[in-house]
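Researcher: Re-running this chain for the archive, since the previous output was lost when a drive failed. Same request as before.
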Amino acid sequence: MAGDLPEYYFRIRENGAAVFKVDTENRQRRIEMEQIAVVNIRNGEVKPQGERKLSPADLREIEAWMAKRAALLSAREVDDILRTIDHLNLTTHWAQTKASGAQLDEVTDALLLAMHDLRSVLVRKKAERLLSGGGGDNTEA
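Model: Regenerated structure tokens:
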């Protein structure tokens, strides 16, 4: 099993990860993990741990992980939105077929405001894209 372990381990954190170097080549044949850096996905910052100097191999692995992680998070974000669309459709069906008057009274105002806000943002963003030539890449929040 120890031979199958990766050389690096990334402990996921809110904005990135703590990076560990995995060592199985020691006398006790134990798995040892030494923290070598902390990375921030949002700003791309890599901070070596303590006085450690990261090797080019360390930096290559960290940068590869960061790119892979950013792609994964982006895909998850789109998947979450697609799930939201499913949820909206299920909510519509629930409101039309199953909800009681009391249940509708409890959720209607919050749903209407959230949907109005979302619609306003979507219409504005679509108009901006159409006016600017239609680029689909929008990094502005």
